[in-house]
Amino acid sequence: MPKLGMPEVRRPQLIRATMDVINQVGFLNATVAKIGQQAGISPSIINHYFGGKSGLVEATMRSILKDLSTGINLRLSKVPKDDTLARIEAIVGENFSSHQQDEAVVKTWLAFWAQAMHDPTLNRIQRVNEKRLLSYLRLELKRSMPHAQAQMVAISIAALIDGIWLRGALNPQGMNSNLARQVVQDYLLLYIKHS
Amino acid sequence: MPKLGMPEVRRPQLIRATMDVINQVGFLNATVAKIGQQAGISPSIINHYFGGKSGLVEATMRSILKDLSTGINLRLSKVPKDDTLARIEAIVGENFSSHQQDEAVVKTWLAFWAQAMHDPTLNRIQRVNEKRLLSYLRLELKRSMPHAQAQMVAISIAALIDGIWLRGALNPQGMNSNLARQVVQDYLLLYIKHS
Amino acid sequence: MPKLGMPEVRRPQLIRATMDVINQVGFLNATVAKIGQQAGISPSIINHYFGGKSGLVEATMRSILKDLSTGINLRLSKVPKDDTLARIEAIVGENFSSHQQDEAVVKTWLAFWAQAMHDPTLNRIQRVNEKRLLSYLRLELKRSMPHAQAQMVAISIAALIDGIWLRGALNPQGMNSNLARQVVQDYLLLYIKHS
Amino acid sequence: MPKLGMPEVRRPQLIRATMDVINQVGFLNATVAKIGQQAGISPSIINHYFGGKSGLVEATMRSILKDLSTGINLRLSKVPKDDTLARIEAIVGENFSSHQQDEAVVKTWLAFWAQAMHDPTLNRIQRVNEKRLLSYLRLELKRSMPHAQAQMVAISIAALIDGIWLRGALNPQGMNSNLARQVVQDYLLLYIKHS
DNA sequence: GATGAATGAGCCTTCATTCAT
DNA sequence: AATGAATGAAGGCTCATTCAT
């Protein structure tokens, strides 16, 4: 086992601190001072490891998206390759997994979403993610329906996921992940049977 | 006697300027200086009319939500009271009306959404709006299906609206409102016919 | 009886409002807006009647000093011209009269005192007042002792008056005017008997 | 490693600059910008070391009072413990020492006195100081007279000190410390001998 | 690698004053 | 006479960043 250098320790530490601080005080008030304090280290070091605040912010966003992607792939690997319903359910399930429902993650994500409209780098990262979700869904759906229809249904499911997620984000009771899965499943079953 | 009736002129003027500035530089960088400049008047006067920046921000959000509410009611007034499909379509249509797709409105709304997670006042305003949309939809759906199902379908449609809207917000090509209406309509028809 | 013009009404009204506001929020936070509000009239009018805030401030200080001077003369007019002890007592008594102990008056006076160190106009007004008190006292004392001694005793009594007044100004229980008179009287009796 | 020990350098530096600026332009116009400029450093650092302007102001007041207290104790330590007259003279003398007559110190003190009426923290500091002076004096006087009288004389001497100091503060020629000591001494001799 | 010192730009807000009505 | 609208200057404070150690 190689000895970990400081970079491998500090970076995740600061990324987690960033999410925690955004969760506590909001993106607007998440200063490097607070993030450093949360991580228990000097704020100056953020520049050392991330080249500035925006670097840290981008790394944090990438971290969240990577966690989601990894989670989806992990779930998919446990499901038969031709069980469309189960694979869609796996994708949806990961989008509402306990990690994705972590309050800090949710708030950070929404903050990024808003911020991405004005920050080209964040925007690019965000759009890659959007397209990937659509792509995952479409890939599975194409087994059961024509391409055009698969595209439409993929859009619908993606919208359902994001819509329920968005509405849950502001709800003080948090999200109802069972409801989310149920809604998508009902829709999908109905669609496959009757179209 | 001073110039009277200025509040009626200045308030909408400043609210519009706020949206424009948020559109241009983002919520984070929307300073009172820029808003005043955009409106062509002194920034100081924002305090005169709104008691501070947060007052202006809240007024802006209320303005957007009121526009949406007014638009929905207007559309509904033109549709037969028992034509469920047409009434749902009216609600959906207004959510994707040209005014609601105005880039400044879209960006402002998303900015508020993110901000509302940390600002109690904005949060309250936002939640009222969420519940109202659900309530509108449920009211119409109850004519065509049992209460429990109406609630479920209302949640789904609301999620579809918000999800499509959210995904469109980041898309540089803007939203595809026809697609939005189509997706919702397909979904609705599926439910009404086959369940 | 002549009909009073507005100036005769507004000026005392604003002067009183100034003292009340200084009492409530301190000299530092006594803005023209608050003073206008306290008087129930528009702040703009202060410029009309006093030519600006500093004009109002100076007028307020003059008003307080004039009240003191008037009060002293009134008391002296009721005391035999050769009763030194009684005349000194009259002067001291007026300095601790109920009007001079009015909290608003006390706070305003002390605020002026501090301010006078940096405002030439206020300084001039203040010094006239100081010299007048000394002059009053010396005039009475000269009947009972040599000039040089009268000067010294006058300084002592003036210092006692101001010192007790100053210490009382910060005391939340207010001043003890009986104590003040007693201290001065004891001192004077002792002095006249034994020197 | 950063430069260490800066707090010990910066804090006195900024406190002195505060007094100098108050002396030059008055408490009302003593801005952090001017104080920073006077100290030759960036105004921002005031927040770093004192947490804001009010922190600096309080520290400045405490510094002045501590200097006085230290000076009194030093003088008292050089005087026999039972020589009442000499000990009172030591206390009075320090109150009119050259340091306490420093124009900046005098103006700052008076400014604080006025300010203390509206600032709870300053008020508390100020009252501690008042009581301490009384306590010092009473302790010495009790050796030479009954308790009740000692209290009365202590109040009188404290009033004399403050009154003479206050009158001197506004006098452009500054204070006459010899006169001050003389007045107090005469007063005291009168009381000790003849009552 | 890591830190505290230090800075300068920028923000929100307050406020005395002026002006048109 | 009186007012509300409007302004511009200034103030305290925050914050990301740089630098010497």
Could you give a short description of this structure?
The structure is a homotetramer of 195-residue chains. Chain A is mainly α and 195 residues long.
E-strand count of chain A: 0
Q: Which class do the helix and strand fractions of chain A yield?
A: mainly alpha
Give the name of the CATH superfamily of chain A.
Tetracycline Repressor, domain 2
**Amino-to-carboxy terminus distance of chain A:** 55 Å
Sheet-strand content of chain A, in percent, reads under 5%
Largest sheet, strands/sense/barrel of chain A:
none
Oligomer kind: homotetramer
CATH architecture annotation of chain A:
Orthogonal Bundle
Q: How large, in whole angstroms, is the Cα Rg of chain A? A: 19 Å
Low-confidence stretches of chain A: none
The helix fraction of chain A, in percent, is over 70%
Shape of chain A: elongated
What descriptive keywords fit this protein?
homotetramer; mainly alpha; 0% strand; 195 residues; DNA-binding; Tetracycline Repressor, domain 2; elongated
Indicate the topology.
The structure is a homotetramer of 195-residue chains.
Chain A: H1 6-25, H2 32-39, H3 45-50, H4 53-76, H5 84-95, H6 98-101, H7 103-116, H8 120-141, H9 147-170, H10 177-194
Helix pairs in contact in A: 1-2, 1-4, 1-7, 4-5, 4-8, 5-8, 5-10, 7-8, 8-9, 9-10
Chain B binds a DNA duplex (21 and 21 nucleotides) through helix 3.
What can you see in these coordinates?
The structure is a homotetramer of 195-residue chains. Chain A has 195 residues and is mainly alpha-helical. Chain A has one domain: Tetracycline Repressor, domain 2 (Orthogonal Bundle), CATH 1.10.357. Helices cover 78% and strands 0% of the residues of chain A. Chain A has ten helices and no strands. Chain A has helices spanning 6-25, 32-39, 45-50, 53-76, 84-95, 98-101, 103-116, 120-141, 147-170, 177-194. In chain A, α1 crosses α4 and α4 (53-76) packs parallel to α8. The N and C termini of chain A lie far apart (55 Å). The mean pLDDT of chain A is 90. The interface between A and B is large, with 44 and 44 residues. The structure holds a DNA duplex (21 and 21 nucleotides).
